[in-house]
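Problem 3 from the worked examples.
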Amino acid sequence: MNKYLDLSPEVASALAEGKPIVALESTIISHGMPYPQNVETALRVEQTIRDNGAVPATIAVIGGRLKAGLTPDEIEYLGKKGREVIKASRRDLPVLVARGEDGATTVTTTMIIAHMAGIKVFATGGIGGVHRGAETSMDISADLEELAQTPVMVICAGAKSILDLGLTLEYLETKGVPVIGFGTEELPAFYTRRSGFRVDYRIDTPEELAAAFSAKTEMGLKGGMLVTNPIPEEYSMDPDVINAAIDQAVAECNAKGIKGKETTPFLLARIKDITGGDSLASNIQLVLNNARLAAKTAACLK
């Protein structure tokens, strides 16, 4: 076991007994939602995973320790501290650990720490990707590189619709990352079920997802697998409404000169305000939906 990694008693016991485990990120707690909804949602997602037969492992960096499995008090701590917590990508881990600081894990760092702990399945909201205008800004999420090298299955509601979805898919293809649509042949776009872009393969059952991931790892192919799970129909937003809100938020972001890892939190917060909170309600429901699928899939892995 990595000397910088701490497992919660629940996660350690589950690993020892071969029980299914689902990793969860912590950026959604500190940067994705306001307090107290962030804490309430994190605890609700954990309970959803338990209700579907798996053990949740919320991941973060606290006091310089890599944590796989948080206590309710630790989740509350991250939720209250909010954006004071560093949004930690791969490049941040060495310094945070050396300094004994806190970090909220992105998709990238959650994959890294999950893999260290031996956890194979990770549920999140949406992945990062190639940002609009990346042909000049070179703003490409580290999530895509991590998917190319770290063997964890990531279950999400597609790439965030603030991104250039076509270029994101092209990048993943170049890196050899399978993009699976769960019950769909079309890439879901986070708040909406449709994007106009096709995924690589459609898979309809957790059992087949588990079989495909097992085959990938047993063949020694590096990297992860991206499973895109559409938001439930009843919570899907009107594409015209959400796209107009995204366009307005992107324009404001550019006008303010916001760049790098501050971009996504700014855009998500502005989209929430522009839509009167509807986007936040959809965000919560799609995360719960992904947690259910992740738990069922983890239970099918051998």
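Problem 4, a separate protein:
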Amino acid sequence: MIKTGILSTDGYRTGELIRILLNHPDVDIKWLHNAKHAGKQVSEIYQGLIGSTDLVFTDKMDIENINVLFLSVDKGEAAEFMSTHEVPESLKIIDLSGDFQFTEGDGFVYGLPEMNRRYLNRGQRVSNPSAVATAAELALLPLAKNLLLNSNINMNVVMGYSEFDESESLALKTNNITVFKPLCNPQTEEIRKVIASLQSSFNREIKLMTFVGDFARGTYFTAYLDCPIELDELKKLYNDYYDDHNFTFIIDRIPNLNDVTNTNRCVIYLTKENNKLIIISAIDNLVKGAAGQAVHNMNLLFGLHELVGLKLKASAF
């Protein structure tokens, strides 16, 4: 069994991580650190776990007696933890905060399995991608690998309100939609760095508009760009790229969020209008965009099959 610890703050993402790990056949959760809720049962905070666990939050961390540590904390807190604790070299770490994305010299691999699986198979530390970046990068990776990103890329994303903590998302839950950081979302730079790692020649503009909807979970991504390649050839290129990956699928209809809600899947649809390639991708921001991808990365770190603990059913029938 993989002995697991979770350093956590409040949030939907942490609850989803606990839920997935509780149902993982090879995981034993040894402790859940949250000083604010120390002494409280996990199901008291995450009521969807009533009847699933008797685990209690603690304000103590026994990092010497676990195999993997999940840092399900806010931006800045993972870096603070790593700088103030003596972490055993043998301890595998999966950071969900984004503190160690593209940093050098600390041993963290960017945890997008569809791009870095061979590095994750022999890695020790992983930095999870953010949800918007995951949806965008999966939509663009096959093009970047084949050096086909040679125009400006116009992107739109609609996110569920669970992308934010509960206090921030209350106003978004009923009959509402709002724009979030128009054309200045920090995840744009994350997307650019991933593209450049595969296609170093890419030097065009990325314009990203992000919106928050009144639905709970999901990330719905669309992009359009100039591309002279025929649609059938592009579909073959995408299918070839994702052929040996277990969670990303090319489909022949416009995706719905319910196709992927509650799963670790991404679905991608391609179409063309004149010379414009239109790409649509959909993921669950809490699973493929956060907790599920973290567990996927854990499976790779420990040499397990990618699907273990992640055979999750979508909401759609």
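Solution to problem 4. The chain has a mean pLDDT of 92. The longest strand covers residues 219-226.
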